[in-house]
Each structure stands twice: as C-alpha cells, then as structure tokens.
Batch of 3 targets.
Target 1
Amino acid sequence: MTTTSDPLSRRNTRHGGESPQLDTDPGREAYVDRAHLAALAATHPAVSARLTHDPHGLPGLSRVLVLHGPTGQVTFHIADEDAELFEHVPWAADGDPKAVWDGHTKAQARSRLAGLVQLLAFEQRGVQS
C-alpha cells in the first residue's frame, strides 16, 4: 500500500487510487471523484474560489466550496475527509460576498458548469488554432 504527498492523489493506491472504504460505499466513490474535479476547477484562473462553513450542513459535510466564474456561482459541499484536497483554496473572510450562496438550484449549477466547460473549450481551441 502506497500514498503520496500530493494532495490531489493522497488516496490509498492499493485499489488503483481508491481507499479501502470505497470498496464498500459506491456513493462515497462518487463524492471522492467529484471532490477531485472540484479541487481542480478551483485552480483555474477563470474561477474565483473560496471555502466557507455551512453551520446547517449534514454531519461530515460542513465545508462548502464556492466557485465564481464567468457563467455564475456553483457550490459544492465537501466531505470532511476530503478537506486536504482543498488546502490551496482560501477561506472566506466574514462578510465576503463571494462566499454567500446566490440561491442557485442543482439544475442551475449544472447549467453553469456546462457553460463554463464550453467556454473554456472554445478558449482552448482558439489558443491551439
């Protein structure tokens, strides 16, 4: 069993990068995959990222990643056990307007993410042309 110091790959590699608990909890596996992608999205220069606490969050999901991009705000609850993936994201200061949920629905968040992916893909194609 091996691990690395890279926060985006600090998972037990005994099972192809998955931790043993994922073998018995497929829902957790989806959360880990989503957490890795959200941590990656938080590094993109077109996105402003902040962490904040949700005092009403479910147990084990008290952190919220707030992403602001050209297509709007998207938020993700982050499992406490995935916190290390977000060490690069600054915590929001009290009163930070970028840490306030804008009321978006899941459908709106998905649409905003799709728009962001499409925008970034067009930009990438323009750079490669």
Target 2
Amino acid sequence: MSRIVYRVDNNEVTFKVGPNAQHLNASEVAKRIVDIKEELQTQTGVEVTSAGIGDKVSQGVKPSTRISGRML
C-alpha cells in the first residue's frame, strides 16, 4: 500500500498521486474526480468546483481539487 501525501487549505485539497493498484496517473485521477463530482457532493456534502493537475517544483505533479461546502 502506498502512502498518500496531501494538504488541505481553505477550499482546496492537494495531493500527490504515486504508484497505485489501479495504475492511475495524476491526469486520470483528476478526470475521475470530475466524473464523480455529483456523487461526491451527494454522499459528502462537498462540492467539487474544479479538478486538474499542477506542477509543484519541490514535490512533483499533483492533482488539485477545489471544493466548497463543509471543511474536511
């Protein structure tokens, strides 16, 4: 099992996609988040307003998901 590295800020969750059992890369994870955003809102009350990948020089490529609603 791989370790999940993440950061939670006001209205933003950022995490690094490493090796995983589904063999998904950062772009695929961001696309899947968009694909299930309505289900996420229904089940958690969190609204995903955007998802994508960004480059953090010191920590590699990470998907970034902007959320509104309740705090995580």
Target 3
Amino acid sequence: MDSAPATVHSPETGESDPASDPVALSRRERKKLQTRRAIHDAAVRLFAERGFAGTTVTDITEAADVSPRTFFSHFAAKEDVLFGDRASAVALFEAELSEQPPEVDAFTAVRRTALNGLINRETPTEQMRLAARLLHDDRSLVGSLAERFAGLEEGFAAVIARRGGDPSVVDSHSRLLAACLLAVVRTGLTVWHTDRSDDTLEEVVEELFDLLGAGLRGDIPRA
C-alpha cells in the first residue's frame, strides 16, 4: 500500500480529525468530539454483543448516556455509526483521488484511492471485522448498505468524471468505475469474513482489483 496521507482521519467518520491538533480545538469542540466518540464506541460494542438489528438507537443513547436528540445531531442513523456518512465518504474519496498524478490512468487511480482511503487504515481492524460479520449475518443490513452504495456510486462517479476533465458530464466510464469500486469493497468484506480471515482486508481487495483489472479472464489464481 502507498504511504498514508499526512492528514489524520477520524476512525468513526473518515473526516479530518481535529483531535490531531488539540491547540485548534475549543473546549466546546473537544466536548462534541468526546460525545461523538462515546456514542460510536457504545454503538460498536452493542453491535458486537447484540447484532445490528438487535440494537436500537435508544439502546445506544442509554449506553452512551446521551439523549436521542444528541445522537441524531451526530449521526443521521445507526448505519452511519458503522459505515460513516455519504458526504464524508465522497469528500474523502475526492481528496485521496486528487493525490493521484494526472498521468495515472483512471482505473489505477481509483484502485490506489480505494486502498489508501476507503480501506481506511485508521479504522481499527476489529471494527472492520465487525462490519464484515454483521453484513454476513444480518440481511436487513445488506439492504441498507445497498441503498447507501447507490448514493455513493453517484457521488464517486461525479468525482471520477471531474478528474477526467468535464465536470458537467458523468460519463458511462466514470459510472462503471464507481460501480466496480463499490462491488470490490462489498465483495472484499464478504470474502474476508467467510474465506480469508487470516489475510488482511487490503490483501483481499487488492487481489479482487487484480481480477477486475485482468478483465475477469481467470488468469489470476483464485483463492
């Protein structure tokens, strides 16, 4: 994997983490960040214990000792606790993609961006494994993720198109790359959980990109 970007990202959201610069934080901002992390940690613990469907927003707020109003001021839904919100994911994708040299072809740039940003190295491995397990065990969560990915696909396609030159046109190539990227990530989580738990998620996703880049000709050994 390429070296990590200098910006520190929040494990909960993928956004730039102001905690990396404590001097820049006001007391109120520190309190908000602490509350957000308390909600996140409580939710992840409950998801691991009870499953996603078995955990309600009320359960999370009680465990974190906050009100429902406070929860929804930080997260639009409990899915956002686990996967982050769409706007932050698209912004992170655009920031990572902009780091790729213009001479790099679109597929390679998207691949590197996925490995550097979407498979976020600041996110604890335990949380990534939990997400993979929940997706495997909870079919309702799979449906929620499909809806979320549909929105991400539009956002990612627009970012890829802007890199290609004409920001006013989201062409079929950009849409296909965005769809393939999300398919690789979704499949990677499944394969990692069911068949490749001894490997890293990065290794699994990288192999899937190899298969995709080879046009699925079957000339790369399957795991």
